[in-house]
Specification:
The protein has 544 residues and is an alpha/beta fold. The chain has 18 helices and 23 strands. The strands form 5 sheets. A 9-stranded mixed sheet has the order 13-12-14-15-23-22-21-18-19, with helices on both faces. The protein has a 7-stranded parallel sheet with strand order 5-2-6-1-7-10-11, sandwiched between helices. A hairpin with a 6-residue loop joins strand 21 and strand 22. The protein is globular, with a radius of gyration of 25 Å. 51% of the residues are buried. The mean pLDDT is 95. The structure holds glutamine. Glutamine (GLN) binds next to strand 19.
């Protein structure tokens, strides 16, 4: 075992979307499965202080950690692969770096000196990289540098990597560089030139790549690997092929076969042993050999970009494997749903998930969908905004409270069944000010969720401003919508259920952030199970 922390930097060249996050997570998995305490960190070169204020169309979903950091979705992959929680320290943006340097300047910490990109910004980057390493909790820290080498935004990061490699010394910090080997179909050939250029660009900044991971659509021959190795100053074993995979969960095994972990450990002067992937491979086996299937509708307004719902989709994969069924997710745009087409779009579904979201667009479609599944007794899971829509629907259509709404959508509604939290009323800044991170919740014993979790006290991650309005609680409960999860300090309602329905659960928090390969989230597992039961019932009904 290492007695000092070692660092692996993962950079990317040629183009974005090469899958750095998945490669970093897969490498981490292989190292973890050999007993190395491993964590991953992502450095994002944009100026937003965090991705919390970004529209999901920009970079996909915003992932939330236990300690309330709003982060890049790659952190979700890290947690799903490693089953180790990440934190504020695991995601740093250029905005955050500049913010803390400028705050230090205002406090007078650089008094008398000119504050510059080098050394002040690069020092701040170096400190942030080493926070996790210095905690003593990890043997290996993998730092993924977002963006593409050669971009203006990436320069201070690459310079920080160059300095760290030098400061930490040989065998303590290495660079894994991801590139592309495109296939030109007209020539019938794989082309190595973009890789050569990308390694050269990195070298212009003084950084020699130690390992190359080459994204490709076709197998790389030995000859080609030798050629890349020769032109890029790396050993042949350090040229790793990363061929397109049918599932991201195959990538750790593919990297194992290619020897990525072995070559990395060799460079770090650490012993290699065969990783223990037993549990991982059991999951893969179940995932790839389902005995049946279910179809679940995902109702949201960002459905054009599936990355907007990344954690939800991955949770379905984990829960599907746990139930030995494949979950077909049908994306349904809430903006185009209405009472006329609802039956056509939802009647064949085995379950419906109404997704999280912000703002007014598409909410009436979500409310219509909740009404339909409530009445037709189709299993329902509402997450955050989805839960709020379920409360609004019940208030309007069961309690008869006309125009009931959330004050997020209609400030002047006569029935604000979902309302801004008291503490939120004075807040005007939008960044990092929601109710964020893990909060405790007590479950009511006679409930679906109590059976699902198998315990009374849980902690789940939040990201919202609005809440169930407790002044409507008595009425809603009497009418049949029960509050089955409560915040112990504030009494805020975190979970609603309808006992007179096969499976109707709405949660104010985001269970999807905590589902991992090793620990599929119990709510998703139970929801998929309910959907499967529904599908079997439907099949029996059509056969009868
Ligand atoms: N817009 C809602 C709120 O702020 C729900 C947020 C969400 O779905 N994450 O409360």
């Amino acid at each position: 075992m290492a007695n000092n922390t070692k660092y692996v930097f993962v950079t990317g060249g040629v183009t974005s979307s090469l899958g750095k996050g998945i490669i970093a997570a897969s490498l981490a998995k292989l190292l973890q499965a050999q007993g190395y305490r491993t964590t991953i960190q992502k450095l994002d070169p944009y100026i937003n202080v965090d991705p919390g204020t970004l529209n999901p169309y920009e970079h996909g979903e915003c992932y939330v950690t236990d300690d309330g950091a709003e982060t890049d979705l790659d952190l979700g992959h890290y947690e799903r692969f490693l089953n180790v929680p990440t934190s504020q320290a695991n995601n740093v943006t250029t905005g955050r770096i500049y913010q803390s340097v400028i705050e230090k300047e205002r406090r007078g910490e650089f008094l008398g000196r000119t504050v510059q990109v080098i050394p002040h910004i690069t020092n701040e980057i170096k400190n942030r990289v080493q926070i996790l390493g210095k905690s003593g909790e990890f043997d290996i820290v993998i730092t993924e540098i977002g963006g593409t080498v050669g971009d203006i935004e990436s320069l201070p990061y690459i310079e920080a990597v160059r300095q760290l490699k030098w400061d930490l010394g040989e065998h303590n910090a290495i660079v894994v560089h991801l590139t592309l080997i495109p296939y030109l179909s007209a020539a019938g050939e794989l082309k190595t030139k973009p890789t050569q250029h990308s390694v050269k660009t990195l070298m212009e900044s003084g950084v020699q790549a130690d390992v190359l991971v080459c994204r490709t659509e076709h197998e790389l021959s030995e000859k080609l690997k030798i050629k890349v190795a020769r032109f890029c100053n790396v050993k042949k074993e350090a040229v790793i092929q990363s061929i397109d995979a049918s599932t991201i969960y195959d990538v750790p095994n593919m990297m194992l076969e290619e020897g990525l972990d072995k070559v990395v450990l060799e460079h770090l002067d650490l012993p290699f042993s065969t990783p223990n992937l037993t549990q991982w491979n059991e999951f893969l086996k179940r995932h790839k050999n389902p005995i049946d299937e279910v179809t679940i509708g995902l109702i949201g307004k960002y459905v054009e970009l599936q990355d907007s719902y990344k954690s939800i989709l991955e949770s379905f994969i984990h829960a599907g494997a746990a139930n030995e069924v494949s979950v077909n997710v049908e994306f349904i745009h809430s903006e185009y749903l209405n009472n006329e087409n609802i039956k056509l779009k939802l009647s064949h579904l085995d379950g419906v998930l109404v997704a999280p979201g912000f703002g007014e667009r598409g909410i009436e479609g979500k409310i219509d969908a909740v009404k339909y599944v409530r009445e037709q007794k189709i299993p329902f899971l509402g997450i955050c905004l989805g839960m709020q829509m379920a409360v609004i629907e019940y208030a309007r259509n069961v309690l008869g409270l006309k125009g009931a709404n959330s004050t997020e959508m209609d400030e002047k509604t006569a029935h604000p069944v979902i309302d801004l939290m008291e503490e939120q009323k004075l807040i005007t800044d939008k960044g990092g000010t929601m109710r964020l991170g893990a909060w405790a919740c007590n479950l009511v014993e006679d409930s679906i969720v109590y059976d699902v979790y198998g315990k009374k006290h849980i902690k789940e991650r939040h990201r919202h401003r609005y809440e169930y309005n407790n002044s409507y609680k008595a009425k809603l409960e009497t009418a049949g919508m029960k509050a089955t999860g409560l915040n112990p300090e504030t009494d805020l309602v975190e979970i609603i259920e309808i006992p007179d329905h096969p499976w109707f659960v709405g949660v104010q928090y985001h269970p999807e952030y905590k589902s991992t390969v090793a620990n599929p989230h119990p709510l998703f597992v139970a929801f998929v199970k309910a959907a499967y039961q529904h599908s079997k019932k439907q099949k029996r009904a059509t056969m009868a």
